Amino acid sequence: MNSSTLGRLARRRAELIARCTAQRDALSMQSQSLAQMMSTLDHGLALLQRIKNNPVAIASLVVGVAVIRPRRLLLLLRTGLLGWQALRAVAPLLHDMLERSKKKTGA
Questions:
Q1: pTM for the full predicted model
Q2: What does 23-68 look like in DSSP terms, one character per residue?
Q3: Which domain holds residue 63?
Q4: Gap between the Cα atoms of 49 and 3, Å rounded
Q5: Is the separation of the CB atoms in 87 and 48 below 8 Å?
Q6: Domain count, the chain
Q7: Which of 1-15, 20-34, 70-84 bottoms out in mean pLDDT, i.e. has the lowest?
Q8: Closest CA to 10 of 21, 2, 23, 25
Q9: For the purposes of burial, counting CB atoms within 10 Å of the CB of 94, is it exposed (0-12), middle (13-18) or buried (19 or more)?
Q10: How far apart are CA 20 and CA 17, in angstroms?
Q11: 3-state secondary structure at position 5
């Protein structure tokens, strides 16, 4: 190989290494953002589990809302029911994603 070919290959190699480094950094930032979102979801699911295991807290909340704003109680109950149904539909997927994320990070 002559020197111009070697120089061209060296430049190409340097460009590829720079591109790989940039992609690696971008992927790292994206995965950190995703890990933070998953952590937030994990905390939310833990809170929901605690509330689910404490029916007195649910009853107290409903009575409190009924006393403070009785007209909005039905709207709140409907929204809560829809949210609960959506969570039950999505929870297994979120749980699987959290488990995979924990396995990848070694946590």
A1: 0.38
A2: HHHHHHHHHHHHHHHHHHHHHHHHHHHHHHT-HHHHHHHHHHHHHH
A3: 3-105
A4: 68
A5: yes
A6: 1
A7: 70-84
A8: 2
A9: middle
A10: 5
A11: helix
